[in-house]
Every structure is written in C-alpha cells, then in structure tokens.
Sequence to fold (384 residues):
Amino acid sequence: PRRVNSPVAAARPAPRFTIGRVTPTDATAIARLNTRLTAGGSPHEVYAEDDGLPDDAPFPRERLYVVREGEEIRAAAYLKEVRFRIGGAEHVIGWVKYPVSESLVSKQYSALPGALLMELMRRRPLLAAVGMGGHRGPFAQLLGGMKWRGHAVATMVLPLRFGAVARALPKMGVGGRIGTIAKMAGASGLADVGGVLARPLLRAWLYRKQGALQLRAASPDASNAQFFERMLTLYGAMASRDATHLQWMYPADAPRVAYYTASARGGQVGWLVTQMIEDNSPLESNRSGGLRIGSLHDMLAAPEHATALLAAGARLLRDAGADVVLVQHCHPDWQRALRAIGFVSSPSGFALYVAPAFARLLDEHALPVETLYVTRGDDGLHRS
Fold:
C-alpha cells in the first residue's frame, strides 16, 4: 500500500493513511464507514467488490481501492480498467467509479479524495470519469481543480406517457412555469387525455423512424469483434465493445437488462442494450418522481443507422411499460439522431472528464473530448 500524509492529517496526532486494494478483512470496516455516512445524512455508500480479482487479472476488470486509517476505511473508489482504441491503437484506460469518502460528512477528511485520486493516476495515468452529478458535483469540481478536461453530456429524454410525466415533474422539484403547468395538467386530467390522443401519433412516428431496421434478442458473440472493428473506422476513440467486454459489462443475469442485435436488409447494422430502471430508494424516487424509466443504455451502429436504432429501442421500452426513455450519449452524431426522433435535453448529472495524460493523447490525434464514443454503458449498469 502507498502511504499518504495529507495536510489535514498533519494537524492530527500522528495519524497515517495508507491506500491500496481492498482485502476480505476490510468488509467490517467498510460496513462501519457506510454506517457513519448514513448517520451523517449522506445517501452514498461503498459497494462491496464483486469478484475479488487478483492484481494480474485480464482486462476488462473492476477493482476497489480504499484509504485506511488504522482499523478504519475513510474513502474508497473503484478503478474499472478496459481496453480503449484511440486512432486505431489500443490503450488500457481506467474509469474512476463510485468515489465515496468520509469527507462527505466530516471536513477533517477533506484531503482524502484528492489523495486517492492521485494514487489512481499514478497506477493508471490514462484515467477518465463519467457521471458524477455533472460539473457541479463535488467530485467533478475536484477533477477540474486537478486540471482534468471536462465535457457536459446531455441527458436526453423522450416522454412516452404524458400523464405520468406531468404528475411526476412537481415531485421531482421542477418548479416555475413548467412545474405549474405540469401540476395543473396532471391534476385536471388534461395530460392523460393528451397522452391518449398522442399515443398513436407517437407510435406511428417511431415506426416511421425505425424504417426497415429490426431488433432481435440475442447474446454478444464472436461477431461483435468484427462489427466493432468496422465501427472503429467511423469513430476515432471508444472502449472495446467485443464479446468479452460486452458479456462482462452486461452479464446474462443482470436484472431488467436486455441485449439486441439490429439488422436491415439481411445484414447486421448495430446492437442495443436496454435497462428498465425501477429503484424505489428515497434518493432515486426523488430523482425520478416515481416514473418507470427505460434506459437505452448502450448501443453501436454507423451514424446513418443511429436514428433507426434509437427509434426501435424507444418502441421496445414503450412496449415494456416505460413512462419515459433516457439516453446519455456523448458523440455529436448521436446527439443529432436523438433530437431527430424527438428527444429533448433535460437537466443532466452526467459529465465526462479525462485526466491530463489522457487529454494529451487525444490532442495527439486531434480528438476533442466531446467526440469520444461514450455512453451510459461506459459508467456501468444502474445499481438498483
């Protein structure tokens, strides 16, 4: 483990912090940290490491790193390491995920997130992070202060059931003119009537946009590697999406997750991963207003097939009972395709940041951060 003496630690009676991989004996200390976070009013927690991978495990892999102080765990973050193709060359990059620190409830540990991040940068200089509550989130603020390069990724939303959406907006804290109109429309039933009238129009619109493209439930296989190589000629930089990575990212037993291949005129033109998000925790209920959210979680296709693939996915989620469809995609071609279907931007807690070494590598290939092929899938499945 790497020893860290933080500025805050120097003012306390000879404490010593160490940073390293989590061990099985840390389980009770992590439980105590989660208890302290809950008692301090934080909704966040440290998730247990699923597989206990050894240090030399093959990629892709996700491992938990912790900051220890004596017998206690004070901070933790996951390092998800994947193969990433940039300008045709393969690199291993790390995604920093689920950073949690006792600094959320105690200022005396405010130096620990930065110390943990510096150690992860030492281990894996090509680091990135996505999500984090957007640019205004505390972790994103820390990354910006450490000269990481950031880009806001719009959260795109397609309402499918207008009555449910209108009733949910006030619960989500949406105020002003939009909140007032939504509250009146929901209470009076106008939103439900409008939704009934609009439903066949929406169905016809999505069917038209889908065109000849067809989806089929499947599992990732060897054909994904060939398709991924074809797509690399169209997109400058993205994480590997061959069968090995996709099976790891989207295991067959993942709840409410489905993988589909897309074909048109007899040939494969893409694939799509959907997830129904049904989280009844207080944190998620406040964010969603009780809506049933369908996520177009990950996808890959050439830009000319993006609109049809997204429309087909939205139809799938509508049939599954979703009130609203959610998509987070960084690439500008896909942003345009989403708007062409009728998706609109909503307040987003999704931001993409890359470490200085990663930013320099992108500069060498003249690739702005906003042109990376990054989806919600790069951050992982929704934990529910």
Observations:
- Residues 6-14, 170-198, 280-286 have pLDDT under 50 and may be disordered.
- The chain has 13 helices and 16 strands.
- The longest strand covers residues 72-86.
